[in-house]
Specification:
The chain is mainly α. Helix 1 packs across helix 2 and helix 2 runs antiparallel to helix 3. The longest helix has 23 residues.
């Protein structure tokens, strides 16, 4: 995310609070799960999936703001990508 996008996420956390944004994140992840399930059952819903992915990405950015763990997340992600690369 850009610095501007991260600032917007920080503002959202400041305005709505940790509890609310954690709840919204869980709801957005559930909506993505629902759309993926529909797709696996044959529904042509790629646009809906894209929208839910965007929502989840925004909420994940807010989680990094809330828990102040961006650097740790980045390190863990890098390690997991190396492990994935080794497997494939």
């Amino acid at each position: 995310m850009t610095k501007c996008e991260t600032a917007i996420c920080q503002l959202a956390v400041n305005v709505y609070g940790k509890t609310s944004q954690c709840t919204v994140c869980m709801e957005e992840m559930a909506e993505l799960t629902k759309e993926l399930s529909k797709n696996l059952r044959g529904q042509d819903n790629a646009a809906h999936i894209a929208e839910e992915i965007a929502d989840v990405e925004i909420m994940l950015e807010q989680l990094k703001v809330i828990f102040r763990n961006r650097a740790l997340v980045d390190r863990i992600r890098a390690g997991k990508l190396v492990r994935l690369s080794d497997r494939i």
